[in-house]
Structures are given as C-alpha cells and as structure tokens.
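Q: What does the assembly look like in three dimensions?
Context provided by user:
Components: four
Sequences:
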Amino acid sequence: MNSFGNIFRITLYGESHGKEIGVVVDGCPAGIPLSENDMLTDIERRKTGGYATSTRTESDIPEIRSGIYQGHTTGAPILVAFHNEDFNDEDYNFDGFFRPGHADYAAYKKYNGYNNPLGGGQFSGRMTLPLVAAGCIAKKLIPSIDISAQILPECMANVEKALENNDSAGGIVECRIRNLEAGIGEPLFDSLESLISHAIFSIPGVKAIEFGNGIASASMLGSEYNDCIVSSDGKTATNNCGGINGGISNGNEIVFRTYYHPTPSIAKKQKTFNFNSLKVEDLEIHGRHDTCFALRTPVIVEALVAIVLADLTLISKATRL
Amino acid sequence: MNSFGNIFRITLYGESHGKEIGVVVDGCPAGIPLSENDMLTDIERRKTGGYATSTRTESDIPEIRSGIYQGHTTGAPILVAFHNEDFNDEDYNFDGFFRPGHADYAAYKKYNGYNNPLGGGQFSGRMTLPLVAAGCIAKKLIPSIDISAQILPECMANVEKALENNDSAGGIVECRIRNLEAGIGEPLFDSLESLISHAIFSIPGVKAIEFGNGIASASMLGSEYNDCIVSSDGKTATNNCGGINGGISNGNEIVFRTYYHPTPSIAKKQKTFNFNSLKVEDLEIHGRHDTCFALRTPVIVEALVAIVLADLTLISKATRL
Amino acid sequence: MNSFGNIFRITLYGESHGKEIGVVVDGCPAGIPLSENDMLTDIERRKTGGYATSTRTESDIPEIRSGIYQGHTTGAPILVAFHNEDFNDEDYNFDGFFRPGHADYAAYKKYNGYNNPLGGGQFSGRMTLPLVAAGCIAKKLIPSIDISAQILPECMANVEKALENNDSAGGIVECRIRNLEAGIGEPLFDSLESLISHAIFSIPGVKAIEFGNGIASASMLGSEYNDCIVSSDGKTATNNCGGINGGISNGNEIVFRTYYHPTPSIAKKQKTFNFNSLKVEDLEIHGRHDTCFALRTPVIVEALVAIVLADLTLISKATRL
Amino acid sequence: MNSFGNIFRITLYGESHGKEIGVVVDGCPAGIPLSENDMLTDIERRKTGGYATSTRTESDIPEIRSGIYQGHTTGAPILVAFHNEDFNDEDYNFDGFFRPGHADYAAYKKYNGYNNPLGGGQFSGRMTLPLVAAGCIAKKLIPSIDISAQILPECMANVEKALENNDSAGGIVECRIRNLEAGIGEPLFDSLESLISHAIFSIPGVKAIEFGNGIASASMLGSEYNDCIVSSDGKTATNNCGGINGGISNGNEIVFRTYYHPTPSIAKKQKTFNFNSLKVEDLEIHGRHDTCFALRTPVIVEALVAIVLADLTLISKATRL
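A: Here is the predicted structure of the complete assembly.
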C-alpha cells in the first residue's frame, strides 16, 4: 500500500513527528552516479520559509544509507532518510476535536484510534520530502526528458487575500513535460493519465487533475478538440489532448494541471464537533502552517512525474524488441 | 499492465475487431450467487443505439466460462467473454492517415506498427464492455454501498449542437457513492482519489477528474473550504472535499466528476497529415460512431468504482483486527 | 493469486470440467511471429495416451483469441483457450469421501464447499495445459536459451511395478538450461531458485526441488562443494551449485530436479473416512488416471522455466544500462 | 525485486558493510502491541559466536523508526533498522579472484562491476537479520500458529569433521508448523509450497527443499504415499504430504526440510581462476566465517514461514465470506 511502481518501485515510511521519514528506491539500474548532493536543489525548492509558507524549519538533510558504492548506484535498494527535528509534540494534543479539512477523523475510524496523530502522522505533507528525494533518483534515469512545474500566477491574488485575513488558500500547479518520445504509457489501466493521476493524488491536498484542456474539452465539439498532425514527426497544430492519446504519449508536449484545496489549518476560529463534549464548539488551531502549501508542491509534482516516467521508460525498454 | 487491483484483481483482453473480448476476475470470494443475468441490466445501459450514440449493434451477451459452479462463485478466476459480431473490417483500412484525436499514431509508435488497428484495437471503447461485467461482480461484494453516476444535464445543449452539425460532443459524468463507511482507502499512494482516478482514466476519452469541489477549491479560502463536523457520526455541514480526507473516506457522500473529450471520429472533413503523401490533406471518416460517447459511460464509471471499492473493502477486512 | 510474473505475466483460468481452460499472457513485446502452430509440439508432448498415462482423450486444440494480428504479437494480452470435451461428470459424484492424496478436503475447507469438485476443479493437472501454451510464447522471447527436461530413467522400474499392481508411481524430472548468460536473477526474494521453485510448485504433485547437487550438498564439506572457476568466461570445474550463485546465473549450465508424488487416484481399495457415515470405510476410485503423471510433466517444467526466464530477461533488459 | 508479500509485504535494504541494513514492513494491522523487545529472543538465536559459527560480533540491536505509537502498531509502514558495526573493509579487497561458491562472479556480471563487493554486499547472510525482525512482527499476526525449526542432528558429524579440517559443512533444517487451520494457501501459483519455497530460497545457501516425504515420495507407490483421513477433523493416518494437498493446508502438521550447501568461505587453499593474471592460482580466504552457517538459520526459516503465513492469513480473512 505504501509502494508505487512496477520495476522502478518506491516504498515510503515514516510519520511527521516520528524519528525519521524516508523512502526505499528499488529497481534502479547499477552504475548511475548518485550522491546526496544530487538532491539538494530539489529539496531546497520544497522547503518552508518562503512566501506564504510555514516557519517550521527542518534541515531536511538527505542521508543515503544503502545502494551506493564509490559514488554509483549498485543495483541494490537505495534508502534515503531524513531525521525529523523541529517539532513540538505539545502542539498536537487531542482535545475532542478532529481538525476540519484534515484526515484526523477518517484516520481515527480507519485505524481504530491507533494511528499516530502527531502532526498528521503519515498523512502529513512532510511525507512528500522523501518523494522529492526519490524523484531526484528517477530524474537520473531519464536525463533527456524535461519536466517543469509551477503554480499558475492567477492563483496569487487569492494567496494574498488569505495572508491578509489569517486564512489559507488553494492553488493550481501546471506541469509540462518536453522531449518525451511518442509511445510511452500503456492502453487502459496503465495509461499515462492513470499512472500520473495515481501518483499525483498521493500528494496531500490534491482534489482535481486535468490533462491538456481536459475540463474545457467536455464543452467542446470534436471539430474544435481534435489535434491534427501537421508533420511527419507527429507534431500537432493544437494540443488539446495534452500530448496523450489513448493513454500513450504522442510526442508533443505533455501538459497537466493539478488543483489543490486550501491548507486546512487556519488561525481563524472554526465551529466543529467536539467528541468530548458532544457539541459543536469553537476551535482555534495554533502552530506554524503554510498559508498556501500548493506553493511548495511544484517540485513534488515533478518528482512524481519523474518516478512514473522512469518506471514506464524501463518497461518500454523491456518490452520493445 | 492489463491487470488492476490487489486482491480483487481483473485482467482484460481482446480488441475491438478480434474474435472476442473479456475479463478474468480473480480474488472473488467463494459462495456468492452469480450468473450472466446479473450483468444484463448494466450491459444494457452501456449499449449503443440510444440518443446520440452509434448504430453498431452488438448483442453483447456475456458468457461466464469459469469460476461458477451450481450458481455460485467457486473462488476460482471468473472469465467473462463477449463475442465480437457486428464489425466490418473494410471500414478501417490504413490510407496514410492516423485519425486525429485517436490513439492511432501513438500506438503505431509504441508497437512499431504491430498493433491491431481495426476499430482502434485494444484502444477501443468496446474494451469497457468487460469492465462493466467485472463491475457487476464487484457490486456483489459490496451490496450495501450505493454507487450512482449520470451525465450532467448542462452537457446536453452541446450534444444537441453536435448532432445538428455532424460533429461530436464531450461531456461530464458525476458519480455519487452513498453508504461507504468511514475509513476506506489508504494514505498516500493508495488514496481513494489515487485508485479511483487510476481506474477512471482507463476509460478511453477521460481527460480530467475532480473530487468534491476540487476545481473550485483551488480558488477558495480555507475558511470557505473546510467541512466542519456537525454530529458524532462524522457528518459534515458542507462536503467540499467530496467525502474524502487524506485519501480516506470520511463517511459522507463521495462525489466526483469525470470530464470527457468529444468523440474523435466525426463526419466533418479534417485537415491532417497523410503519411503516404507526406502532405496535410483532407480526411473524411466514415462508419458508425457515437456523437457523444460520454452518454454511455455512467455505467462504466460505476463499474470501475465498484471494482476499486470491492478491492479496498477486502483489504480493509484483511487489515482491521 | 492466479497470476504469475512481473512484466511477462500470465493469468490462468478454468477448471477440469468447465467449459474451457486458458491463460492470458500479458507483457509480450509486439512484433513476434506467433500462431497456434507454434504450440502443437509441446502440447502433444503433454498429452495422455502414452505409456502409463490416462486414456482421457482431449483434442487439446489451442485457440488464440486476442493479441495476434497478421501473424504477429500486437503487444496486447494474448488469450489462449482450450475447450474441455472428453469428461463425464458422473465419474465424480460426492459420496462422503474426500479422495486420499487429493486436494478435495483442503479445498472443501478453503471454499466452504463452494469449489467446483468435478475432476478436481482448478486443482486438476489439466490446468497445466494452458501453462504449456504460455510456455511456448515465453520460449519465443528467449530463443537462444535451451531448456530441456526429462524424467530420470531410474524412476521407470517403479512405474513398471505400479502398472503391474494397479497402483501408481511418482517420479523425478531433471531440467537443464543451457546458454543462459551470467547475471540473470535477483538477490534475495527474486533469486533464480526462488522464482523457479515458485513456478514449479504450481504443478500439481510436486513435493521437492533441488538445484545442482542440492540435497547431497547438505552432507558435503565446503572444499568438496565449491565450484572453482577455470577460465575467463566463468566456466567452473564442477557444477555442484547447478549454475546459480547467490540466486544469479553464473553462466554455467543450470540444473535442477523436481520430485513428484505418485498419482493419488489408484484403482486399489483404500481405507479412508466417509463424512456421511462418519466411519473409515473402503473407497474404490474409478475413472481414467495416469499411472505416473510425472511422465507428462517434463514439457510443463520447461514451460514454467521459460516463463520465469522470459520475465527475468525482460527485467534484465530494463535494468541494465 | 526486494519486496515480498501481497498485503503483509516486506521490503529489504542494505548491504553487509554499508551503514545499516533494515526492512520496511507494510500491511500490518493497527493496534498490535509491538516493541524492539519482541525481537530480541529471535535475534539472539541468529547471532554468531556459538558452536561452529563466525566470531564477527555485531550487537544486532533493532531500531523501530516508524509505524509504532504508544507501544502499538499504527497501520503505517514499520521500519526496523540495524547499524553495521564490526566490519573491516580491508578484509575484502579485490585481487583478481571471485571467491568460489560465492555470488561474486555472478554479481559482477549482473551489475557490470558496480555492485558493492564488501562482505558480499546484499548477497551477504547478514541480510537475513532484518528478515528475522520482520518475522517477529509476522508472528504477532498469527499468535495461535506454532512454527518451529531446527537443524537435523544427523548433520552434526559432518560439522565436527569440518571443524577438525579447517573446512566447512552444509546442513538440513526441518520446520514443523502446528495449529495451522485447513484451507490456507491458494491453488496453482500461490500454493503453500510455492510461497514457502519462494521465501526460503531467498536465504543465501539454500539449494533444496522438500515438503513432507517429498524426495522419498518420488520412489513410492500411490498406495504407500496417500494419506488417508481417519476422523472428521481431517486428521490423516500418515503425513507423507507434509500437511499440504493441492497447495492448501489440510489441517495436519506442516513439515518441510531445507538443504544448505556448506559455507563457501573456507580457510583451506582453493585453486581458482585469477582474472588479473588470467591463470588458475591458489586462493586463501581469510576472515571470520561460519563453519556451518546452517546452524544459524532455523530462526530465519521460522521468520520466513511466519511472513508467508501472515500474508496468507490476511488474504484468507479478506476472501472468506
């Protein structure tokens, strides 16, 4: 349940306030130069402390503990771990409230109350840190593919409004993939859209995804939507399909957008049920939270795309004569 | 690659114009009453011949060829097969054109030209027929859960326009799931959103999915978005999250919407590249096609949801003390 | 549960006395010439009717129903099916007895009595027929590897004795694999021994397996056992390890032996518990049974080895730079 | 490739001389009391330092770094790690020799020379330490099943001989499983024999396995081999099949034997190929090695059996109505 991928396969572990969090990366070919340094830029991009993000300061230093020898991958599983440092358990005592918008209640029901509730446990956005590390390894396997994600500028007005009002904001992250050859992905269950969406929805807070002009396409006519090929390399005049037909890359740019709900933890009072008093009461949430966590996610989106494409590329290599 | 699910696992086979198409359903408990009759209503809902759908008439008679004995499941894999009957191979000769909006070009590149191109081969919407059959079996495992999907009425104006103009239309299908207990789904990779989207994007033509008010939520403030609990059974005042927090059901109604692009095959002339003449030329597509294939998909959405929930329910049963 | 393999993956279905039995073969590269004719020789080798085998005569005609177009694999799943013809359900009425040596009792407990008991249902040796078909496809992927299995001649005296006494006999099948390059297999869980034994024990009646001089090696000293390399191509002076070190092929011949128990169905009277009378009673088993089913299994062993090696070869191709 | 199991799934990482080794255990239900103390007895049983075992002394202290909260499992993945301490890299410089009987040569070929060769890297017997830890968790899930393994006494004469001659010895470990209900295991690919052998062959040095009287059964007649039921609880008069029919437990004691080759590292001179000089030369292996590593493996066998049975028990719970 905490593994993803077929050949290039990652397994996550850890909780927000546990000793450490990390990832085991399996199926990585031997002989690839790799060190922790390869991960620092992406890890930095995910960090807190920037505009409209939390002030929880974690050093986020990756430690590779297996699978590397003399600066290269060995073919054995690669463990990358991160110590948890800057947390204060007193922020998170249970007081009858399951926080609105969080997984608290659902997790309590699922695990009969045995889940680790501190900082959201394994539901925490902190779990995306090892994903970024795994993404750095994946990117090494597909060096010619260019993956680039960013938050759409039109979201910033809402972020500004949230900052002014002690509130929080959602956001939209757009990802573009260039230089992906035609023919990657599988029909039906392992379509590019299936695998990318599967991966992307594992980012806490994602509630929608569209490929190409996916949402608008539902209101289009076929004559408007179809992307007609204009040259022998498969380039199309338009790209409504976002570079994917029948679940397979068609050689044009892949484009998709990821929609995030606002950070659920807000400083404003909320009226919600107290399971001790059995009444709806005022709840105030303290602590250090991102006003807009979506701002920190472009690098996570890229990581997950890289993980999907690394796996599909290995499979393609295996199954093409 | 053509299998989906962990314990309740389905494997698809077949092509649009091959001898037959079908599905192997594995992991189904023994002792469940089951016959082909249990599938007829759902199969009928998917059929062509209604408003704005194709006139290709297939009898679509399911044949269970294994896994049933004396009217009950045996615990062995269940094969459900459908003969292909009403197809005319002459409709699909290659003439230098890869049809716009179809998987033709991407598949050609993926399979080095060895894919079966007739009727779209395994990329055909016909492959959703065995999915519906598998869904009927899945529904038997989760009888108390109510899954209901339909196309949004606001899409019909566009369908009407398409019909009038020899064009095609997209659509939006909304699915609601009631009586799903809290605690189903897994954090991170096997979140409800991850698994449902993975399944749903295997339906040819889906280009976007949103859970709850997922798209709108990206423009909301946290104080607007958060669903506050109002009673001890976890019911919430609003349902912006679509019944899912942290990837886990919270006991409220699950709501998601699936966005389809228009049917790519249209009677109108299209200008696209001819790989024989190496020029952009006019293409006219003949044959019998759905004006709006999305109209046929609500039952397919329900089937895939049932398949996901059957599997998650079995896993939940296994992993709860 | 009825699937095996990672990329080259097979899924079995069917029961001894059901309508048909078959296999879905997924992950096969596109562009490989394939037809039913490629399977006939191996299917013939598995047939009944020879020395000390059953007289149940099945035509065993393979039908490929998907995944082939114009004589080549398409990359889509390949279904190979076989009709069941020559069975007589009256041979198998339940009368209070679970047949000794068969899965009858264990299956009854597992499936709460809902399993198909006719001819052993999915526990029947007949399920190995689609395995042979899948093996023929696998062999196409690894044409340079030579896999050859046969029953050891020293077993024949016991078979002769069984024939003379209306009894049945076990046997030992030895398999040799030549021209497998060094470096195939994975350390630990997916060692060559792990995967081959996993596959081989799915043949009904196998109760032991040894690689190289595995059984004898337990009584050896290290100085006797170690296979020392004698040339730069890795050839060893002895081959006690059967061509496998640390789960990986070392370039020498792979050798393993499979041990079968005798056919459980014998004409002789047996004293066993009757669950109707609740007493131990005499049981006489009628019908047409192999005196020594092991005689029919060398081709099945070869098929399973081919399936394992096809998958490992694809994985090796994927994960070597 | 380094994962095993379907629902209760373990993922190994680490190398003999790396920073640490460990295992991620996924699929463990929430609410089970668990601490490192639960692992100490089994870890002690595996340790070196006893009769005919190595003098490498590792403290082998397990650290649970995730998945536990307030003394209970949380349902999240459990990481158990062990620091590597007592190793001396100078023992293992490459000098043109691939050690006889070791994976050195096969691994070199597989990984193009990039594998970590120190102490055998991930091929080391040290990797069985986290398996023992995972086995302790598995045993918690199946408290009523009694799993007990030991080395057969008749092996000890050979061990004695090896000790006297600076040589090494193999061994046979017998495992008995009591109180396993009838009906566990799956027909065909996931038979009890398939899964147990798959797991057992991941122990470095195992070269054969037999269930019940598996080896002898190949020379038996059916009338001698068949285990006849004698009472309504399924107990049989004999147990030649080792408690498994058709891959499924029949409620009798499960018995199997595992055959180990001798420790490949011996103090005696060996004549083997030197890849620097390109000649066969004398090789002397120094270091601290087990005379008979099989003596340390009974607890590993038990661990792997527990892992298999925990997974099958969860699956059985999921798929029985």
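Follow-up: The mean pLDDT of chain C is 95.
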